[in-house]
Amino acid sequence: MFTLGYKCPICGKVFGSMVGVRKHFTKTHSNLHRCPICNKEVNNLAKHLTKMKNDVDHLVIWCLYDNLRGIKDNKLKSKIRRIVKEKLR
C-alpha cells in the first residue's frame, strides 16, 4: 500500500518528509535498549546498528539514527538514502 509520506518503521507514524521521520526517530526511539529489528537486547543501539548495517532493515534504522555520518562516498550515501526512502513509503 502506498502512503503519502514517510512512515516510522517503529511506530508507523507518517511524516511528510525524511527529515520529519528522522527527527521523530531520534527524539522518540533512539534510546531503545532492544533492537527494533532483531529484538536483540543492546547496551548501545548505534553500535549494534553499525555492526548490522549489511542487513537492509537494520540499514534503514541506522540511516535514521545517525543520518549516515562518517560515510564520505556520496554515491553510496545516495544509494542508501534511496533504499531507505523506498522502505519507508
What does this structure look like?
This protein is mainly alpha-helical. It is built from four helices and two strands. It has helices at residues 18-28, 45-51, 56-66, 74-88, and strands at residues 6-7, 14-15. The chain has a two-stranded antiparallel sheet. The longest helix is centred in the last third of the chain and has 15 residues, at 74-88. The chain is globular and about 30 Å long. It starts with 5 loop residues before the first strand and ends with a helix. The model has no long low-confidence stretch (mean pLDDT 84).
- DSSP helical segment count: 4
Strand order of the largest sheet: 1-2
Terminal CA distance: 9 Å
Task: Find the structural class using helix and strand composition.
Answer: mainly alpha
Percent range for β-strand residues: under 5%
Low-confidence stretches: none
Share in helix: 40-55%
**String of helices and strands:** EEHHHH
What's the rounded overall pLDDT mean?
Answer: 84
Count of distinct strands: 2
Broad shape = globular
